[in-house]
Amino acid sequence: MADRFIYTAEDESATRRLGEVLADTLPAGSVVSLIGTLGAGKTCLTSAVARRLGVPEGETASPTFVLIKEYKSGRIPVYHFDTYRLKDSDEFYELGPDEYFDGDGLCFVEWGDRFEEVLPPDRLDIVITVEGPAARRMELVGRGGFPSEVLDAIAAELG
Ligand SMILES: Nc1ncnc2c1ncn2[C@@H]1O[C@H](COP(=O)(O)OP(=O)(O)OP(=O)(O)O)[C@@H](O)[C@H]1O
Ligand SMILES: [Mg+2]
């Protein structure tokens, strides 16, 4: 029973592999906070989750500047929050985030560390560190009541 798991992605396809495993293992209703610098791979990871759930590539590939992107054509809805341009928590609350967090989709929040007070306490944090042009260290940390069996299942798939 673990509350954290470290995954080393040596290239982009390894990041996508993590996304596929997340799509296969995260219970509906999970909230994931993505923490990492510009270009760390937060969007890449989220797109891989949506793709695995059945969202067509065309939908996930288009560049977008919307704050919440909703992918509803897959097995489970995916809500992708890009909070980069939000100034403060009030702006985040104005988007009505609890409706998403309390729902049955999967929520991925880029820059979640800037808005911890808005996020539910039970969630998965993924801290991405850039270690080279294509190398990324990903630390998955279960917070609050995030089920440790899920982390174990992710680790078993990737370990
Ligand atoms: N191992 C890797 N995993 C993910 N992306 C990688 C990896 N190696 C290289 N890249 C490149 O890094 C970039 C990651 O971009 P992405 O948009 O996913 O980052 P981001 O964390 O969402 O950035 P931003 O904060 O600007 O939204 C892409 O250009 C991708 O090709
Ligand atoms: Mg991004």
Descriptive keywords:
159 residues, alpha/beta, Rossmann fold, 7-stranded mixed β-sheet, 6 helices, 7 strands, globular, binds adenosine-5'-triphosphate, binds magnesium ion
Overview of the molecule:
This protein has a single domain (4-158), classed as P-loop containing nucleotide triphosphate hydrolases (Rossmann fold, 3-Layer(aba) Sandwich), CATH 3.40.50.300. The protein has 159 residues and is α/β, with parallel strands linked by helices. The mean pLDDT is 96. The longest helix has 14 residues, at 12-25. α1 (12-25) crosses α2 (42-52) and α1 crosses α6 (148-158). The protein has a seven-stranded mixed beta sheet, covered by helices on one side. It contains six helices and seven strands. Helix content is 32%, strand content 26%. Bound molecules: adenosine-5'-triphosphate and magnesium ion (MG). Adenosine-5'-triphosphate binds next to α1 and α2. Magnesium ion (MG) binds next to α2.
Blueprint of the fold:
Layout: E1 4-9, H1 12-25, E2 31-35, H2 42-52, H3 57-61, E3 68-71, E4 78-82, H4 89-93, H5 97-101, E5 106-110, E6 123-130, E7 136-143, H6 148-158
Helix pairs in contact: 1-2, 1-6
The chain binds adenosine-5'-triphosphate and magnesium ion (MG).
Adenosine-5'-triphosphate is lined by residues 9, 11-12, 14-15, 36, 38-44, 84, 110, 134, 136.
